[in-house]
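Quick one, tokens below:
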């Protein structure tokens, strides 16, 4: 087991992403055990010339903290762009430094991908969505070094999330295998943990035609600290990780299979985007949380219960 083992968090249970429009009562027992915050959602953007930065909006932060009460909190970032070759988003890290002083988190995570690239003048251009990295050693070593730096910077477990992606990789790029081989190489090299997003795995299995249950046999499950579950939908020929509804039956089955073999899993988080909450409804979200809890209690390994 990697050296981060000694600092791995104790099991929390079932989590929910923070959504300002949900009733505060949902962010209490018995519905959830922890909350997952995307701090960029509590920020405002500031521009100085051609340079953009993100700054915490203390009003939004205070509102979120009041809603979530004393729940343990974990961070799930979306704007670090850990795989950008020209450099990651320093503005995000400066914001996270401040956020940590305001609201302590148990661990933090990011997507394994990139979403910025430099223009002709070296300025960072935002793509808008995370894109997958080429599965080669150069990219793996770049991200691994940054994982080490993040663990040293915050002194907390750092998790990388396996992304959903929709385009086939070039055969020339795949010098170390597929997305699973790439993630395993990065987490070992960076001595970090994994956020296993089961809906992303399911999306990729549909769009790229592989067996997601067989894929679990190849993932370094001893490095999984958190899991994500979510819903998605079809857009044309692609099944999308849209976070727009309830969890598909196949993802519930994946959760059962994955929990049984993850000795250090600390939590399972249900994700849904704010704009879809009015249509799905709070009652349906509570039902998803209850089903996740039932599976958690039935399938998680005993070693996790013992810490």
């Amino acid at each position: 087991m990697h050296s981060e083992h000694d600092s791995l968090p104790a099991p929390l249970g079932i989590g929910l992403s923070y959504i300002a429009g949900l009733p505060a009562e949902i962010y209490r027992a018995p519905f959830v055990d922890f909350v997952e915050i995307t701090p960029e959602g509590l920020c405002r953007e500031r521009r100085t010339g051609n340079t953009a930065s993100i700054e915490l909006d203390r009003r939004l932060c205070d509102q979120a903290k009041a809603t979530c009460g004393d729940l343990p909190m974990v961070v799930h970032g979306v704007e670090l762009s850990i795989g950008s070759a020209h450099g990651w988003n320093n503005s995000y890290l400066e914001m996270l430094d401040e956020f940590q002083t305001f609201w302590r988190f148990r661990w933090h995570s990011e997507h394994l991908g990139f979403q910025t690239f430099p223009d002709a003048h070296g300025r960072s251009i935002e793509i808008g969505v995370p894109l997958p990295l080429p599965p080669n050693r150069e990219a793996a070593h770049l991200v691994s070094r940054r994982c080490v730096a993040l663990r040293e910077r915050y002194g907390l477990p750092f998790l990388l999330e396996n992304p959903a992606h929709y385009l086939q990789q070039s055969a020339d790029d795949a010098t170390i295998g597929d997305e699973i081989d790439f993630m395993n190489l990065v987490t070992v090299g960076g001595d970090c943990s994994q956020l296993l997003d089961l809906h992303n795995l399911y999306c990729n299995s549909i769009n790229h035609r592989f067996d997601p249950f067989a894929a679990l046999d190849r993932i370094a499950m001893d490095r999984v600290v958190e899991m994500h579950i979510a819903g998605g939908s079809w857009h044309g020929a692609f099944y999308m990780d849209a976070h727009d509804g309830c969890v598909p039956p196949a993802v519930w089955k994946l959760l059962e299979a994955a929990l049984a073999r993850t000795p250090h899993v600390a939590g399972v988080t249900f994700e849904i985007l704010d704009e879809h909450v009015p249509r799905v409804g709070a009652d349906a979200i509570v039902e998803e949380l209850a089903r996740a809890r039932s599976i958690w209690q039935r399938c998680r390994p005993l070693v996790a219960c013992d810490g």
